[in-house]
Amino acid sequence: QVQLVESGGGLVQAGGTLRLSCAASGSIFSINAMGWNRQAPGKQSELVARITSGGSTNYADSVKGRFTISRDNAKNTVYLQMNSLKPEDTAVYYCNGIIAPPPSMRAPPSDYWGQGTQVTVSS
User: Fold this and answer.
1) Burial class (CB in 10 A: 0-12, 13-18, 19+), 119
2) Is the dihedral of CA 119, 53, 43, 115 positive or negative?
């Protein structure tokens, strides 16, 4: 079994910063792409940022230049540094990862999701 646990959300004023972390644990052989999605009330979920195992990144246009995704492969952890936060960044942020189990489990890689962490930006 694999778990993704997010931390670092909270309440911040517009223009402030937050750093989200997401640690993967359990039966992990390797982790391919990892990313962050968010869902605001009444809106569809959207991809915020994604990073491959090789370090290539992509971002939603709305966060480019303000958010930075990174990962520590040794710790199976992905981070999202959020600067210059805006009220429209308010949402529940979810991390996900494409995770391959040990070969002995004879199972393909699967997409796992964390439980979400609330980010609220006040104006």
Assistant:
1) buried
2) negative
Residue 110: CB atoms within 10 Å: 11
Which DSSP string corresponds to 63-95?
A: TTTTEEEEEEGGGTEEEEEE-S--GGG-EEEEE
Q: How far apart are CA 74 and CA 18, in angstroms?
A: 23
Residue-level pLDDT at 49: 98
Instruction: Give the per-residue pLDDT at 63.
Output: 98
Question: How crowded is residue 34: how many other Cβ atoms within 10 Å of its Cβ?
Answer: 27
Which tens digits make up the pLDDT trace of 65-118? Answer: 999 999 999 999 999 999 999 999 999 999 999 999 999 989 999 999 999 999
Between CA 82 and CA 8 the distance in angstroms is 11
Q: What angle do CA 11, 116, 32 make, to 5 degrees?
A: 125
Q: Give the residue among 39, 55, 7, 27 at the shortest CA–CA distance from 112.
A: 27
Query: Do residues 30 and 53 touch, judged by C-beta distance below 8 A?
Result: yes
DSSP of 46-65:
EEEEEE-TT--EEE-TTTTT
